[in-house]
Design goal:
By secondary structure, this protein is an alpha+beta fold. The chain has one domain (4-93). Helix content is 15%, strand content 26%. The protein contains 1 helix and 5 strands. It has one helix at residues 62-75; strands at residues 10-13, 38-43, 49-54, 84-87, 90-93. The strands form 2 sheets. The protein has a 3-stranded antiparallel beta sheet with strand order 1-2-3, with no helix packed on it. The protein is elongated and about 60 Å long. The relative contact order is 0.19. The mean pLDDT is 81.
Length: 94
């Protein structure tokens, strides 16, 4: 089973907000950013926003989860079947 489409690099970023007072967002101005309690999770390869979450949320890359799951399933030495459900470009494994 090929999970490589879901093993993409991610990064955490500060969230900038356009205030409507100027033509451009001033990334040098600390007032441009949402308070320190939130962060954005972004795909590094496409710059696509994945989610906005609280800073306390710990990120675990898909690759780590998928590899750990597959390692544990194989170690069971019993037959298994994986049902993939892909909705809104998100992967759900049952």
């Amino acid at each position: 089973m090929d999970f490589h489409n879901f093993m993409f690099p991610i990064s955490e970023r500060k969230i900038a907000v356009y205030n409507g007072n100027s033509e451009f967002i001033d990334f040098e101005n600390p007032q441009t950013y949402i308070s320190g309690s939130f962060k954005a999770i972004v795909r590094e390869d496409s710059n696509e926003l994945i989610s906005i979450i609280r800073n306390s949320y710990q990120i675990v890359p898909n690759e780590v989860l998928i590899n750990k799951l597959m390692h544990e399933l194989v170690a069971l030495e019993t037959p298994f079947r994986i049902n993939l459900i892909i909705t809104y470009n998100r992967l759900h494994i049952q």
